[in-house]
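Schema walk-through. Below, the input block comes first and the output block second. Nothing else is stored per chain. Lengths vary across the set, and this one has 298 residues.
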Amino acid sequence: MLAPPDLDPLAVRRQFGRRARQLARADFLWREIESRMLERLALVRLEPQSVVDIGCGAGAGLLALARRYPQARLIGVDASLPVAQCAHAALQPPERGFLARMFGPEVEPIARVIAADARALPLADASVDLVWSNLALHWFEDPDQAIAEWYRIMRPAGLLDFSFFGVDTLTELRALGAHTMTFHDMHDVGDALMAAGFSEPVMDMQRITLTWQSAERLLEDVRALGGNALRERRQALSGRGEHREWLQAIESLRGEDGLIRGTIEVAFGHAWCPRRKRRADGLASVEFQPRRMRSEKG
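--- output ---
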């Protein structure tokens, strides 16, 4: 089993909700990981009729998926209502002229967006061909249950494609004494996929080095990525003196080229839903095919 993150789920939703219209500050990282995930999808022969983006954020990933699979029905899910509302607004069809609105056919949005808990997705069993999730798994309150939900909603022979922050993310800040959330080991996630019923899971990892020109900008980007939602976080604001000490400590990470460096470890995973899908009670269905009788020669 995957260890639940040391996060306050209410604080996670509140922090993302407060920053719903400022998610673009960290958008560079989501879009970079998204492009790498799409490159991997290009190697897979898949024509999904239905796609769901779990942890869809402000909806940019759904736009990319719509370009890749223009015939697919797209659904976005995010735990934060303000974020889901931003995605809903971003995915509306382009504004049309007055006559087109009055007499033309109704144009549907690019995707339908739902605010929902990853542990209880409001989607039918075996209804999705592609489950996509970009940098969301490490935020889930119960990652095992979330993976079980991915399996539940997936059609037989469907594909799961996802990414999350790995164990060495922000290791430089932790070395300075920063208290960050605990990230999952990709091998443990692979085991969780097998336990949920997925087949042929493949996990791999890449490290990305980010650079900043100032310690202030580094802290702003870390807050934009989700901020501090730890259960044991201090409730009161830090004073100016402590903030100044943190800026000085981060300055020690500045290299000879004048830039501050930080590591982001990104784990990628994909897995298939078996054609004979395991039932909710843990059993697998068995099919009996009648044997053809050989005709006797007279």
